[in-house]
């Protein structure tokens, strides 16, 4: 008897259309992205500059958490080095933008070129890591990605003449277009840029997840042997998942360079990779909607931590130690609580609530 996993792998390997109409899926995703874009456009006009910057930060995080969700939640590979991939994209954008500025090259197209090169560089690094990851499993895979997370910031510190060591690089970014007005808030412009990047990322990944490649990812995650017997090239598919996730991380890092107007090794430490992994688990592993929850938590929880620290009367040394360790402790505590209350993460809790809401009228009618 053919197992469900083998059946799934066979469907993933077969080059046939899925049961749903592919055209309707693309149009539905386009409609959702367009609707979300319109809503967020009006939301940015209602927020003050600080909240717009927080929204932009969450959108930049979403690019990374969505890509990491595809890698960990769908293909079943573990990465502790996504902070390093973000650093690769960020430093590439910084170097290219500064090169444009030094040469006197201006125009809105320069930022697009810089981000594209940042994505390409991170993708190349991700492909190299993916080739090694395709041969490794479990703790060995975690060890390789952990080495990447440590090595990339160390390189930026060592090559002082290129990356300016621990001080990092400033990033030249042109102000908002004059067509928006001389007093147009820069934070709102940053929010627009980050939201466009996040919506494009979610649109592309949503279609990838529903495609043949997405079904191959899930088949390999569930059972590599069954997937290979069904004709799926396991190693090639795993490398593809790493490449896609690295490209998203490169875009995320590039957007952070644009938002902060600077890059430094301390901004992409190992803790960032841990926070990204914790965020997607808490949000809901394997769900792009869970990646949205995770990106929001990456902004909300540090803000909550800072508020708690400000209310405590501590010595400067104790306050510094607490500021460095409290965010990770709160993330860990949140992870424990969510895993106990909702093993499927916050998005799993939302799904359970939605099912209960739909079933409630039927239950009431049955009781009557």
List keywords for this structure.
368 residues, mainly alpha, ABC transporter involved in vitamin B12 uptake, BtuC, 2 domains, two-stranded antiparallel ribbon, 15 helices, globular, disordered N terminus
Description:
This protein has 15 helices and 2 strands. Residues 1-20 have low confidence and may be disordered. It is globular. The protein has 368 residues and is mainly alpha-helical. It folds into 2 domains: 4-13 and 20-268, ABC transporter involved in vitamin B12 uptake, BtuC; 270-368, no CATH class. Helix 3 runs parallel beside helix 8, helix 3 crosses helix 12 and helix 12 packs parallel to helix 15 (345-367). Helices cover 79% and strands 1% of the residues. The protein has helices at residues 4-13, 22-46, 49-74, 82-103, 109-133, 138-158, 160-163, 186-209, 212-222, 224-229, 234-260, 270-284, 288-311, 316-341, 345-367; strands at 169-170, 262-263. A two-stranded antiparallel ribbon has the order 1-2.
Secondary structure topology:
Elements: H1 4-13, H2 22-46, H3 49-74, H4 82-103, H5 109-133, H6 138-158, H7 160-163, E1 169-170, H8 186-209, H9 212-222, H10 224-229, H11 234-260, E2 262-263, H12 270-284, H13 288-311, H14 316-341, H15 345-367
Antiparallel strand pairs: 1-2
Strand content: under 5%
Number of domains: 2
From the helix content, strand content and strand pairing, which structural class follows?
Answer: mainly alpha
| CATH top-level class of the largest domain | Mainly Alpha
Order of SSEs, N→C?
Answer: HHHHHHHEHHHHEHHHH
What would the principal axes of the Cα set say about the shape?
globular
What topology, given as strand order, has the largest sheet? Answer: 1-2
Question: What is the name of the CATH architecture of the largest domain?
Answer: Orthogonal Bundle
**Percent range of helical residues:** over 70%
**What Rg do the Cα atoms give?**
22 Å
